[in-house]
Design goal:
Mean pLDDT: 95
Low-confidence stretches: none
Strand content: 15-25%
Number of helices: 8
Radius of gyration: 17 Å
Number of strands: 6
């Protein structure tokens, strides 16, 4: 079985829960006999050169990285707040260069499964459907809107509470909008 894993950050080095989960599952799939390619956004916060990944890992998984600037920018956040219905924290991961690399991989290879490592990769479902007949699996690391809802409840500043409330509602709508657009849901407990 050939699997393409999409990640919104490099899973190496595995220094946080998301990176650990993504890398561990990719390596486990490989040990089960699957051929695994991993396309990741190489963000400023989680930057790692593919050449820096140890050979014991890079010999198991084919890594592809696309530089994506996900840095929070006040002007983009304000523009998003005023003129978009999408959550800014998710919108930062929509990137044309990443979409183009995804299209190229899907055109070059025949995948059985494309696994999305989290909600922020769901905007690429349409591209996957257009360029591949692979099953799409969403591995839901979190119920994102619940995290934002808790942040609203714990926020003391009224302006921040109002803004986080908007993000929480947008995240909920976003999560609900993708239900039934993927074939499999892989939860993490």
């Amino acid at each position: 079985m050939k699997i393409l894993v999409l990640a919104n950050k490099m899973p190496y080095p595995p220094k946080d829960g998301g990176a650990i989960a993504t890398l561990s599952l990719a390596r486990s799939l490989r040990r089960c006999g699957c051929e695994v390619d991993l396309l990741a956004m190489n963000t400023p916060k989680h930057f790692c050169s593919v050449e820096d990944i140890p050979a014991e890992i890079s010999s198991e998984i084919n890594f592809y990285a696309v530089k994506v600037d996900t840095t929070i920018k006040a002007t983009k956040a304000l523009k998003n707040l005023l003129f978009s219905s999408k959550p800014y924290n998710a919108e930062r991961f929509v990137n044309e260069a990443f979409a183009e690399r995804l299209k190229a991989l899907l055109s070059e290879e025949q995948y059985d499964v494309v696994q999305l490592e989290g909600l922020y990769l769901c905007p690429y479902i349409e591209t996957i459907r257009k360029f591949s007949s692979a099953k799409i699996a969403l591995r839901a690391h979190n119920v994102e809107h619940e995290i934002w809802k808790r942040m609203v409840e714990n926020e003391k500043s009224l302006p921040k509470r109002l803004y986080k409330g908007i993000i929480a509602r947008r995240m909920r709508r976003s999560e609900l909008s993708y239900i039934n657009s993927y074939d499999l849901l892989v939860p993490i407990t």
